[in-house]
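The protein record filed here:
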Amino acid sequence: MAKELHVVPARRGRAARLAAGQAIQIINTHGQQVVDTWCFNAADMTEFLSMEHLHAMLESIFPSEGDALVTNHRRPILTLERDTSPGRHDTVIAACDRHRYALLGCDDDHDNCTDNLASALAELGLVAAECPSPLNLWMNIPIGPDGSVSWGEPLCKPGDYVVLRAAMDCIVVLSACPQDMIPVNGTDCTPTEVHYRVLD
């Protein structure tokens, strides 16, 4: 029986509770959308998926199918169970925020992933003490041999998805990144919605 499909609207965030053993399937509906992804221990919001700790555990900046994704307490919180895309996801770049858009020349109060994290958690009555660096699904950040970074376009195609399985009771937060000033969401710089479903 198919599980209910939920939408993360373009430029917005959503949160989902997972029990240990459940999984979330995140679908890149149109193939060009970056999804900032966070995960918090449901029993202790100060324990969360940590990119810095993940680098040390994987000895890589690119997670692959079968990899355990760890917290700031160095414990598995999710496993990357399935990835139908080319597997290029970013673990280096911080979530966008109002300060980032101001530096890019945006005078208005631009939608951003940091605010999306806070609003998505608020819908569940939760607050995070900080905005951890996210797992930026499908964000393509080429890194040169000299350590330089550049802003690539996503390499996935419409319908590509990942499945993340929970190793503990947790809260997963997704933000359909609102970035429309550089081409991380494709050359059109047009954020789009994505979809997800919770799996047993």
Q: What stands out?
A: The radius of gyration is 16 Å. DSSP finds three helices and eleven strands in the chain. The CA atoms of residues 3 and 197 lie 6 Å apart.
